[in-house]
Known about the structure:
alpha/beta; Rossmann fold; 460 residues; nine-stranded mixed beta sheet; 11 helices; eight-stranded mixed beta sheet; Cytidine Deaminase, domain 2; 2 domains
Amino acid sequence: MRIVLAMPETLWKSAVEQLKHAHESAMVLRVRRAQSAGESVLLVRDVIHVNESDYEERSSTRLRLPSRAWFPILGQAAAAADGALFVHTHPGGSALPSRYDLTVDEELVPPFQLRTGQPFYGSLILGGSTDAPTFTGAVIDASGHRESITLIRVVGRRVWVKQAERDSTNGPTTEGTDDAPLHDRQVRAFGVAGQALIGALHVGIVGAGGTGSSVAEQLLRLGVGKITILDDDALTVSNLSRVHEAGLEDVAESKVSVVARTAARLGRSNVDAHEMALLTPHSLELLKTCDVLFGCTDDQRGRAILNRLAYYYLAPLIDMGVLISSVESQLTGIDGRVSFVSPGTACLLCRGRLDPAAIRNESLTPQERAALVAEGYAPELGDPDPSVVTYTTLVASLAVHALLGRLFGYAPVDGTELLFRGLQDQLRPNHVLPNPQHFCADTTTWGRGDTTPPLDQTWA
Ligand SMILES: [Zn+2]
Ligand SMILES: [Zn+2]
């Protein structure tokens, strides 16, 4: 089981700030758990610090708390249908659990599970310093089975990903060493640890056409750990002008099968390919444990779902679009956009990148749409838009650049979009603030996870 702890940046800062104290500190994380095949994500909803007056003992190497320090916090978690994780710090030290820590975990499993009503208990240890925190963590289920939290993902203007500190008896501290020759030149750019981070990521891609096939191609060669890709289209001859790795023999095959084959040719079996659109709760299930999502679809409804997923499951969305304009076969515009959507930034609706009318039109049956078109109420969806491989590939590269820059911290964080104007040779950052009344600015939607109906949306 891959277990990831996902946190909004503000909550993460509030937790690691406790490492500035010379003595140990205790907190409770309120979490929701989202699970899909072999993966589990703990979505952090809140960080609650234990009252200063409740510590019975507090030193640089030890702390002791009475049960009354927890009970009110666990009661609040239960009322909100949240589970709870016990967190304590090892200031300036290793985040590995002591023998005493393991005993405390065993003791806390029954009261935590009973009081929250959730079938799991979790613990997290923060070591190191506020500037260079380390962690270890585990989840213990009702049967007492203990599994490690392997990754923390902190989402905000950056995508900050950290692997758990390892015991030296647990083998090498970096993964993917088998691929060392394949990634040698990248390791020279990002370092061995950086390459291991890329290898630890699970990335979702929606759309395997011009931009999606290029994003997938790049992520495969970068060495991303796992890719889940969705597209319900089969390849046509006219797609061959821009779908990477596709050939004549692939016509009528699914677009996603081309991506899976590219992975196989690189000796990887890490692509989970699904010939479906992101339109059903089932397709959402496939993406909710991803660390990052790429929106490579023209479909406004699929993009609207990704737009909510980013907040509900704390998984940043890198959404892109390319618009080639032409009047009577004369090129009049080349416009590309890469939007970084994550808790703490504006959603695509607030940015005006999603058209509610178009979403509604796409959800109509063909008969309903024909009726509206006949009455002049809906835009004709007849002729396909112009598309050129040079620009779909360029925008896909800018989108992957947006991920790498935020993962490794070299991207400026004041902009949340990159806009390309081909006719002006211009590339510029853009930033739009969220509407404070909108769901994206409401912190109670951050990490809300599984709801009925999914994403609090009506599904056709
Ligand atoms: Zn400890
Ligand atoms: Zn919004």
